[in-house]
Amino acid sequence: MLTLERFFVTFSLLLCLSLWFSLVSTIVSQIPLGSKLHSSENKFWVSSNGDFALGFFSNSDQPNQYGVGIRYNSNSIPHDKQTLVWVAGGDLRISNQSYFQLTNEGNLVLCNSKGVIAWTSGNSNVSVAFAVLKDDGNLVLMSKSQKIVWRSFDTPYNVLLPGQNLPVDRTLRAAQQNSVSSYYTLNIDADELQLRWETSVSYWKSGTARRPVHYAVVTANGALQLVDRNLEPVWSAFAQDHNDSGVNFRFLRLDADGNLRLYSWVEATKLWRSVWQAIENQCTVFATCYPHGICNFGANGFPDCTCPFSSTSELKCLAPYPLECDSHVDMVQLEYTLLYGIYPPDEIVTFLSLKKCKDLCIKDADCVAVTFMNDGTAQCRMKKTTHLSGYSFPSMKAVSFVKKCAFSNPLSVNPKTASTSYSNKVPVPCLVLTAVVTFLFFFVVQLGIGLYLHKRKNSIQRKFMFPYANSHLKGPIMFSFNEIKDLTDNFNHQIGPTMFKGMLSDKTLVSVKDLKATTEERRFCRAVSVIGSIHHKNLVKLEGYCCESGHRLLVYEFAKNGSLDRYIGHSKLSEKLSWKKRFHICLSVARAISYLHGNCTEFIIHGNLKSENVVLDENFEAKVTEFGLGRAYGETSTTAERDVEDFGKMIVMLVSGKRDEDVLQWVYHKWADGQMERVVDKRIKGGLDSEELERVLRIAFWCLHVDERMRPSMGEVVKVLEGTLCVDPPPPPICHQEEVDEEDLQLDIRAV
């Protein structure tokens, strides 16, 4: 009986508490006139669903400076991960004892400790009844007739939330750093999204839309789109987790480093994950390293800023200004480096030879630096500012020169010391004899050392034989063969025909590929310099290499889940590849090959694209490996169309789960008969998207067109898979249509 009474008491208390919380939620969701928040109090205005909150905040680098903003407030997001999505006045910060108020006149104001208005919503003449922080993160002012008279979505800062528009007349600006406003902005210009440095330099463009653009928007399912006045998308970019129903929170942000990224909240890891970014190579973002020098990728794969043309220990890396040199000027040469001016960014471009380009800058008193493009254009880019930045890659087809003062007499001679030497009483023949004996002694010593080193040359690490591993460039690590044997435990852990598992000294797992020393050294080193300079999330990173007599090995990052071929050929493992994962693998591989074909500093053909050369990391993110090895083998016959064909074959294999080349005609026959669902791997358990399947099969068959000239580029393949480009019904692939029926019959019999 006592237990029953306790139950009813507990139940009554819970019921009262739930009603009380419901009442509080209703009160909070409608913010009455006169409501006020103080910087000294830890109070917030919270949306009715609890996902967003508005209140004061301070940054760790400015603890005594406060701003007012909207942040994520969901219980599933830890407090230190509750990202700001809107800030009143952008970079505006005020001191303590300030307040934020919805005045009785219906105006939102941010006032400092003296009551001076620092920011206002500017709608005093409009009849406002109350404010609401809506469930989508939009702070709105409502009139008595329930009409919106002002909303925070119309004054974005550096973030767009799902459903929030960026019209043609609005701009996103990256957050300030070290109390300095950012120069990076995002806006719509000429019917395309553009990332800009200040207003003059555009360093990324989305691509011109097919029709006039009305605004940009982030969709709830993970897409950034440009839409026309009919609200039809005319350009789209899709997140890696596009259409993933398990993602509850997303946002698009122009980050402080100048890159535009789409983020998703991952519940399993309790972290925000970047699922799309505008620029893959951070070093190509304008002024990434300004004012700290030029950008190159460090050993960790992240941008590293160095100052190669100045020895200054100050924060700023300014090019030396040579106008006041006592003697002539000299030029510091920077290989594989492209420089550009910051203030001003303009440069004079002419078309000259390398020598004439260098001489032109030497003769021009105002020229500070010059870059010569040896990519076939012969562009000579002259800069007349000491505010320089740029980027450097081992495969960059550019050489730069920076002026500095040259001293013709670096060592001054004391006249007294010189005259004293002639007054010494030492006989001249003795001096000559001493010099000859000394020379012979050092010659014999050097000869002995040379012979000793010659005998040991096969066991010494040849650090200086790689012509592209300049000290100012960071890239793949050069290993000796003995070091390779150590990190692979003497090649004991074989994970492929010529692939071995290993571990670096810092416990990083790697995969080591043995090329069997079939490549000429110079050609191998050139291939390594190119491969090592490529950075893309869907391309396996080259960690290092070995180039010793009789040995050619490449050290790659390790992919935990192994090759795609391993999953396709295994009855149980293949069940882990849902339709969503298979579709994402297709898109990831397409993006990787498209990057190789069109976005690297050099045009790169894979030449051997197949499921064995696609690996999966711990998140089943696809990464393409063994790209660019055609250079090492001296192959020149492989074309981009071959990569497109191989990609088409791999798509059909991934969809059908069959690795026979004969399957191509059978799949096409079923698709043409309107039975495309029959070709899907039976081990896929639900979740099939018919629209995605149609796009995948259509583009696969176009990739397999008999006429190579009719095959799409990999960039077009990416757009079709993303759904931003329509594709016509394809003709039969490669083989003749007459062979279809017989193959169809054979495969149907096998299936039975």
UniProtKB/TrEMBL annotation:
Lipid bilayer topology? Single-pass type I membrane protein
UniProt xrefs under Gene3D superfamilies: Bulb-type lectin domain, Phosphorylase Kinase, domain 1, Transferase(Phosphotransferase) domain 1
Q: Which reaction does it catalyse?
A: L-seryl-[protein] + ATP = O-phospho-L-seryl-[protein] + ADP + H(+); L-threonyl-[protein] + ATP = O-phospho-L-threonyl-[protein] + ADP + H(+)
Q: Which residues, if any, are the signal sequence?
A: 1-26
Among PROSITE patterns, the record links this protein to: BULB_LECTIN, PAN, PROTEIN_KINASE_DOM
Transmembrane intervals: 431-453
GO biological process assignments: recognition of pollen
Which residue range or ranges hold the Protein kinase domain? 441-752
Q: Any idea which GO molecular function terms this record carries?
A: ATP binding; carbohydrate binding; protein serine/threonine kinase activity
Location of the Bulb-type lectin domain: 30-154, 157-275
Keywords noted in UniProt: ATP-binding, Cell membrane, Disulfide bond, Glycoprotein, Kinase, Lectin, Membrane, Nucleotide-binding, Receptor, Repeat, Serine/threonine-protein kinase, Signal, Transferase, Transmembrane, Transmembrane helix
EC nos: 2.7.11.1
Apple domain location is 325-406
SMART domains the UniProt entry points to: B_lectin, PAN_AP
Q: Could you tell me where this protein is found in the cell?
A: Cell membrane
Name any GO cellular component annotation: plasma membrane
Is Membrane among this UniProt entry's keywords? Answer: yes
User: Where does this chain mainly localize?
Assistant: membrane
What family is it from? Belongs to the protein kinase superfamily. Ser/Thr protein kinase family.
Q: What is this protein called?
A: Receptor-like serine/threonine-protein kinase
- The source organism is Dillenia turbinata
